[in-house]
Amino acid sequence: MLTSVLSTYIHGTVQWAVLFFCAVLIGMSKTGIQGIGTLVVPILALVFGAKPSTGLLLPMLCLADLMAVIYYRKNAEWKYILRIIPTAIAGFGIALIVDRYIPEKDFKLLIALCIFAGLAVMFWSEKKGNTHNITSSRFYGPFFGILGGFTTMIGNAAGPIMAVYLLSMRLPKYAFVGTSAWFFMIVNYLKIPVQIFAWDNITISSVTVNLICIPFIFIGGICGIYLVKKLPEEKYRTMIIILTVLSAGLLLL
User: Fold this and answer.
1) Which residue in 28, 105, 109, 248 could disulfide with 33, CB within 3.0 to 4.6 Å?
2) What is the distance between the alpha carbons of residues 210 and 208, in angstroms, rounded to a whole number?
3) What is the DSSP letter of 203?
4) Rounded Cα–Cα distance for residues 114 and 103 (Å)
5) How far apart are the first and last CA of the chain?
6) Nearest CA to 50 among 61, 38, 41, 62?
7) Beta carbons of 27 and 223 less than 8 angstroms apart
8) Is the CB of residue 92 less than 8 Å from the CB of residue 222?
9) Separation between Cα atoms, residue 245 and residue 171, nearest integer Å
10) d(Cα 50, Cα 151) in Å, to the nearest integer?
11) Are 35 and 225 in contact (CB under 8 A)?
12) In this structure, how many other beta carbons lie within 10 angstroms of the beta carbon of residue 203?
């Protein structure tokens, strides 16, 4: 019975290996090494197909989100989360509307350009010493909210967007991880009904596969927590910037 359920997605050892590897990366990305999770999206899409892979990915993200929130529950900066959640939900709606009309490659290009533009604005404002003037704008947070909601609905690719937003706020590393964890838990759990009832790509078979991946998500989560503890503030920030740039670069491929 179990074999027949799993055979919908898994057809060999290579697929199991890829899935477990991606589960470790997801755990690491959610507990502190944000940006590395972007590697998971194209890998799963290549091995399992674009639409089925999103059904496999979202429950794993939700499990990792829960683990991160439990560990970093006291480190979130809620003012930043509340500033972008409403427009992130609006971004869901925009994504559902335009998904039918714009090719996936154009979405990826748009997302990558937005990430690079955000990084450029962040570096420019820090050099000029007017970071606060830009980030305190009434439109700054809502813009990233729309972009984050849009990209997470289209391709689970909001990690770099959120990284740019929180990096520009100069949050300490634990506040960075905690705030990101809460934001993604909220938006990812809101996406579940859409993917079950509208996209029909979360099934009993996919959830069964997800449950088998839990130990590997947990291992990745522990690795992420360890690395966050060991890295000094500035080195952590530099690492996140590098991973964000690499993530944006991958979207251009």
Assistant:
1) 28
2) 5
3) -
4) 17
5) 40
6) 41
7) yes
8) no
9) 19
10) 15
11) no
12) 16
Written as one string, the DSSP assignment of 161-209 is HHHHHHHHTT--HHHHHHHHHHHHHHHHHHHHHIIIIIS----HHHHHH
Tokens 């790509």 appear where? 201
Q: Which two tokens stand for residue 66?
A: 């829960």
pTM confidence score:
0.85
Residue 80 φ then ψ, to 5°: -75, -35
- CA-to-CA distance for 22 and 41, rounded, in angstroms? 9
Q: Determine the Cα angle at 62 with ends 81 and 173, to 5°.
A: 45
Please answer whether residues 55 and 203 qualify as being in contact, where contact means their C-beta atoms are separated by less than 8 angstroms: yes
Asked if residue 53 lies in contact with residue 8, where contact means CB atoms within 8 angstroms, the answer is: no
- Please name the amino acid found at residue 20: F
Cβ proximity of 201 and 51 under 8 Å: yes
Tens of pLDDT along the chain (253 residues) come to: 556 556 666 777 888 898 999 999 999 999 988 878 877 877 887 787 766 777 888 999 999 999 999 999 889 999 999 999 999 999 888 887 877 777 766 766 766 777 777 677 667 766 665 555 567 778 888 888 998 888 888 767 788 888 888 888 888 999 999 999 999 999 999 988 888 887 677 888 888 889 999 999 999 999 999 999 999 998 988 888 888 888 777 767 6
